[in-house]
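EI: anyone free to look at a 183-residue chain?
SC: sure, send it
EI:
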Amino acid sequence: MSKHFEKIPGERLYLSPVNPDDAELYAKWLNDWEITQWLTMHSRVIGLPAERKWLENAATGDGYNFAIVARDGDRLLGSISLMNVQQVNRCAEVGVFIGEAEDKSKGYGTEAIKLLLSYGFRTLGLHNILLHVNADNARAIACYKKCGFKLCGCFREGIFMDGRFVDSLSMDILDREFEEITQ
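SC: here you go
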């Protein structure tokens, strides 16, 4: 029996509530420089107990934290979340990552983001969804543009990584823009 549940179905993958039983794999990924260099948590050390606790809170909280699961073999691919949801302003932020190198550049991130955007706009009634990305992360920026995100700001030299400062770009998409690209 699968430990993941198909909350938001897609073509090649689905989004499932996170499962604390996946803590060891997430801890492995979140301590891998190839992954975390692009996340805001690149300098943190994530232990297994801390990751399990985070996943337990995410699984029982009111947030929108999902596992990205491949239909082929019910294999965990990564994580995607809507964070800082503001009901009055109808806006939120998205965070996403794909864990294994061999799963990158295969369209999984694009499909997962489009599923989350559909959920955010059509189910939660959000109006604006924002994300932040390291200006050096060309692969992620291309993915976000493919999903309809537009550059809306730059926090100049807002990220310190590898002994140098890098710009943090802000990108967003409005509900009507998402509807335009999905028709």
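EI: The domain at 8-182 is CATH 3.40.630.30 (Aminopeptidase).
SC: 👍
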